[in-house]
Amino acid sequence: MKAIQVKEYVKSPSDLLVTTLPTPTPSPTQYLLAIHATATNFFDLLQIRGKYQHQPPLPWISGSEFSGTVLSVPASLPHPQFSIGDRVFGASQGGYATHICCAEERLRPVPKGWGFLDAAGLMVTAPTSYAALVTRAGVKKGDFVLVHAAAGGVGLAAVQIAKAFGATVIATAGSARKLEVAKSYGADYGVDYNAAGWEAEVKKLTPKGKGVDIVFDPVGMVEKSLRCTAWNGRIVVVGFAAGAIEKVAMNRVLLKNVSLVGLHWGMYATEEPERFEEVWRALIGLMQEGKFRGTVYTDREFVGLESVADALGMLGRRETWGKVVVRVPQEEGGSKL
């Protein structure tokens, strides 16, 4: 198989190389998959530099999100959920490859009507945004929701989910193009968060200037967002894409009666597995109702593992929107599905 193997940490994604390795042999509890599309994530950039909280022992294959077809099923499972030829998507270490071995709990069936490209970017972003807005913030009809970095992967997912629940969405982003994308996914208003005084502009868009009911923050903008959050507002901390861990004046949280909560979606499978399935059932329902669609970046096409370096580079420079997904052609003799 072909794969991007990290033998030593690199300074830049441009240092990544595609190599040929033996196709992996699955354990008795694993499926063997042919990967047809693989999605990029900010944490991939951290991991290849040795700066992520989860670092596998060297050497390892980079990437984590993918979609593809089942080539073999686990020998030890009497009733495997998937069969040979099934289309699946998932998340597991080693996504930047043509093949991967993966346990059943890390896979889901590709939704009806979805292609490999859109499905490859689902596993992390969609449930993160749903759990943040619905499970943690209790979004409801009539809420005004501020979505930061609304043109990103979790941002576009959040925009769609908030709209599906009847909320009014104010999207922030750093360029006119990204605000245009956010509106194309349903955002009602767009605000450039690089502009001075953007918080006042957000407040003006809410009824009687009271501020927003919910802030969805994958960036690290709690301090500034408190200026435009309503009484009894809810702020959900989803990530720190800006690169710094915020220090927040907690007296302002108290004075506005604000609920400040975090969302660590990756731990739900361990801590609340029943919630994990509940979220996915709800998401599939939104997809079937036409209220949630794929968020793949389409301004440029990335084909082949050799293009992963460019895709990660553009992602790191904030030059993209949505989910940056790479199409992975199968090797001669591999799966053609």
Mean pLDDT score: 94
Question: Segments where pLDDT lies below 50 for 5+ residues?
Answer: 332-337
Radius of gyration, rounded?
20 Å
> What is the count of DSSP helices, taking H or I runs of 4+ residues?
11
Distance between the termini: 17 Å
Strand content: 15-25%
- Structural class, by secondary structure, is alpha/beta
Largest sheet: 7 strands, mixed
Describe the model.
- This protein is of the alpha/beta class and 337 residues long.
- It has eleven helices and 16 strands.
- It has helices at 42-48, 116-120, 122-136, 153-164, 176-184, 198-204, 222-225, 250-255, 268-271, 273-288, 308-316, and strands spanning 2-6, 18-20, 30-39, 60-61, 65-72, 87-91, 99-103, 107-109, 144-147, 168-173, 189-192, 212-217, 229-237, 259-262, 302-303, 325-327.
- Strands 3, 5, 6, 7, 8, 15 and 16 form a seven-stranded mixed beta sheet that branches. Strands 11-10-9-12-13-14 form a six-stranded parallel beta sheet, sandwiched between helices.
- α3 crosses α4 (153-164) and α3 (122-136) packs across α10 (273-288).
- It is globular, with a radius of gyration of 20 Å.
